[in-house]
Design a protein that fits this description.
With 105 residues, the protein is mainly beta. The protein has one domain. It has 1 helix and 10 strands, in the order ββββββββββα. Strands 4-5-6-7 form a 4-stranded antiparallel sheet. A 3-stranded antiparallel sheet has the order 1-2-3, with no helix packed on it. Strands 8-9-10 form a 3-stranded antiparallel sheet, with no helix packed on it. β6 and β7 form a beta hairpin. The chain is globular.
């Protein structure tokens, strides 16, 4: 499980114990959303842009830019090949193949 907020950090938690499992430092500023890929190996975080992260290494894999206001919600497709985002700028975007962007060599 992961949580985020005003400080820009994303914190990982063990379920069901609630034990903290580390954090990643985002790009600074408020994180408005989180979405795990179906394989749970990658995480998308949002603010004005969307960052894709490797959960194991806590390294940023990609930055998806295009919305002009904060991303309010996002979800990966069931197969992890697409990411849908909706923003306060009243737009929705479909990012094709974010899993390919995140694929490990």
């Amino acid at each position: 499980m992961a949580s985020a907020g005003e400080d820009g950090a994303v914190r990982f938690w063990q379920v069901p114990t609630g034990k903290a499992m580390g954090a990643l430092e985002g790009d600074g500023g408020r994180v408005t959303g989180l979405a795990f890929a179906p394989d749970r190996e990658n995480l998308a975080t949002s603010a004005a842009d969307v960052s894709l992260w490797d959960v194991a290494t806590r390294q940023k894999l990609a930055l998806l830019s295009g919305h002009t206001d904060a991303v309010a919600d996002m979800a990966f497709s069931q197969d992890g090949r697409m990411l849908a985002t909706g923003a306060s700028d009243r737009t929705a975007r479909l990012w094709t193949s974010p899993a390919a962007v995140c694929a490990r060599s």
